[in-house]
């Protein structure tokens, strides 16, 4: 089903004339075929991580308790501790490669890629940040626990967390908070988006650090709400618009948010299509039983949320929507900068921004 939808979507992309209102952004073949072309590199996952048996699990558990934050003790063939081990860029690249391989192999999500829901997991883990109290943010990965996992805004994100469990099992030294944000960076790159430099340094916290419900935005609201929520995190108008451009990816689900449908015709390709369609299409309120959302006049198959429409109703936001609609390069650059900032909110790094890693995407 998902494969069929993906094929149809790509057939559409190939057949759509450049003059059509729905033409996709110019993309490389690699970007248009993010999952198909790499489906041959199948690997093993959780089963491999368990090869050492229960004794190695016990050792790992003990070492993780001692090490934390990416530092752990290396075990040689005899399984004896051999001095402290700091994970290097090469180690994190292996984590990236594993996520990329899973994205290529596990195609049973919606339009054929788990990438969109990984981007959303990293955003919801980070978007709880409050700059006044310096609470929330990606440092802690408290969405592992109820009540935060049960917050309405996080509906559906268990699928993303579960998708990453085999990666955590294979690389037990990485914290969940580093893993989830690294996965957000990887998903953007693997779906044909810009480089998203990333650095480690997040620690997992316990349930006591869960943030209160209501810190993430409510899609039924207007421009004032968008500003309230994103100013609390420390973003300006331009950054807010760039971030919401991630709605080029994925879709809304009736059984999660109540909203329904994709924002564009290529929901597994990162591009400025969200902005182009927002500006060039005519959007009507959808007539249905569900919450207020908007649908494109041309095909009635796409959707916009009330908060998305607020981006063209508000002058301060609209100037950036129009700019990104015309200039994909500007969108890529500014999105990358602001997504990096989002993923780092409230993290007490020991490293400097120039120490960030740029991961090599899969072939
Ligand atoms: C005003 C701000 C925002 C609102 C109100 C909002 C709301 C929503 C809603 C209602 C959904 C549908 C969830 C579902 O039913 O599965 C969604 C999906 C999504 N959002 Fe946002 N969002 C906002 C900002 C962002 C930002 C800043 C990002 C990333 C940088 C993002 C990335 C995504 C992605 C990738 C999906 C698709 C997920 C999937 O396909 O499973 N959103 N958003």
Topology:
Blueprint: H1 2-15, H2 29-32, H3 46-49, H4 53-66, E1 71-75, E2 81-86, H5 89-105, H6 115-126, H7 158-170, H8 176-190, H9 223-233, H10 237-244, E3 251-252, E4 261-262, H11 273-280, E5 283-285, E6 294-296, E7 303-304, H12 306-313, H13 315-326, H14 328-344
Antiparallel strand pairs: 1-2, 3-4, 5-6, 6-7
Helix pairs in contact: 5-8, 6-8, 6-14, 7-8, 10-13, 10-14, 11-13, 12-13, 13-14
The structure holds protoporphyrin IX containing FE.
Protoporphyrin IX containing FE binds near residues 219 and 252.
The CATH architecture classification is: Orthogonal Bundle
Distance between the termini: 26 Å
Q: Quick one: CATH class? A: Mainly Alpha
Largest sheet: 3 strands, antiparallel
Structure explained in plain terms:
This protein is mainly α and 363 residues long. The chain has one domain (28-43, 89-355): Peroxidase, domain 1. It has helices at residues 2-15, 29-32, 46-49, 53-66, 89-105, 115-126, 158-170, 176-190, 223-233, 237-244, 273-280, 306-313, 315-326, 328-344, and strands at residues 71-75, 81-86, 251-252, 261-262, 283-285, 294-296, 303-304. A three-stranded antiparallel sheet has the order 5-6-7. Strands 1-2 form a two-stranded antiparallel ribbon. Helix 7 packs across helix 8 and helix 10 (237-244) packs across helix 13 (315-326). It is globular. Residues 1-78 have low confidence and may be disordered. The structure holds protoporphyrin IX containing FE. Protoporphyrin IX containing FE (HEM) binds at residues 110, 116-117, 119-120, 123, 156, 217, 219, 226, 243-244, 246-247, 249-253, 256-257, 259, 305, 307, 339. It catalyses: 2 Fe(II)-[cytochrome c] + H2O2 + 2 H(+) = 2 Fe(III)-[cytochrome c] + 2 H2O. Belongs to the peroxidase family. Cytochrome c peroxidase subfamily. GO terms for molecular function: cytochrome-c peroxidase activity; heme binding; metal ion binding. It holds the Pfam family peroxidase. Its EC number is 1.11.1.-.
């Amino acid at each position: 089903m998902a494969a069929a939808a993906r094929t149809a979507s790509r057939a559409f992309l190939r057949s759509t004339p450049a003059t059509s209102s729905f033409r996709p952004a110019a993309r490389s073949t690699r970007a248009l075929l993010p999952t198909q072309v790499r489906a041959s590199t199948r690997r093993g996952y959780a089963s491999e991580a368990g090869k050492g048996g229960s004794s190695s699990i016990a050792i790992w558990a003990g070492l993780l308790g001692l090490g934390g934050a990416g530092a752990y003790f290396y075990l040689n063939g005899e399984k004896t501790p051999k001095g402290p081990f700091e994970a290097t860029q090469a180690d994190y690249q292996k984590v990236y490669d594993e996520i990329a391989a899973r994205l290529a192999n596990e195609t049973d999500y919606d339009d054929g890629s788990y990438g969109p829901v990984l981007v959303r997991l990293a955003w919801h883990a980070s978007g709880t940040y409050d700059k006044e109290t310096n609470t929330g943010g990606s440092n802690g990965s408290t969405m592992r626990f109820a009540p935060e996992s049960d917050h309405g805004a996080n509906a559906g994100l268990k699928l993303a967390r579960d998708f990453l469990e085999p990666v955590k099992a294979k690389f037990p030294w990485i914290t969940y908070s580093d893993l989830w944000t690294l996965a957000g960076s990887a998903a953007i790159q693997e779906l044909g988006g810009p480089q998203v430099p990333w650095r480690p340094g997040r620690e997992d916290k316990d349930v006591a650090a869960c943030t209160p419900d209501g810190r993430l935005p409510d899609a039924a609201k207007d421009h004032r709400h968008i500003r309230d929520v994103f100013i609390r995190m420390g973003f300006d108008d331009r950054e807010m618009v760039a971030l919401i451009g991630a709605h080029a990816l994925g879709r809304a689900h009736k059984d999660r948010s109540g909203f329904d449908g994709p924002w564009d015709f290529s929901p597994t390709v990162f591009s400025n299509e969200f902005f182009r369609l927002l500006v060039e299409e005519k959007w009507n309120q959808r007539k249905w039983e569900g919450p207020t959302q908007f649908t494109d006049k041309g095909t009635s198959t796409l959707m916009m949320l009330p908060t998305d429409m607020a981006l063209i109703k508000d002058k301060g936001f609209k100037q950036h929507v129009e700019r990104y609609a015309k200039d994909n390069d500007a969108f890529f650059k500014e999105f990358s900068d602001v997504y990096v900032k989002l993923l780092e909110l409230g993290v007490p790094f020991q490293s400097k921004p120039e120490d960030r890693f740029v991961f090599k995407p899969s072939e």
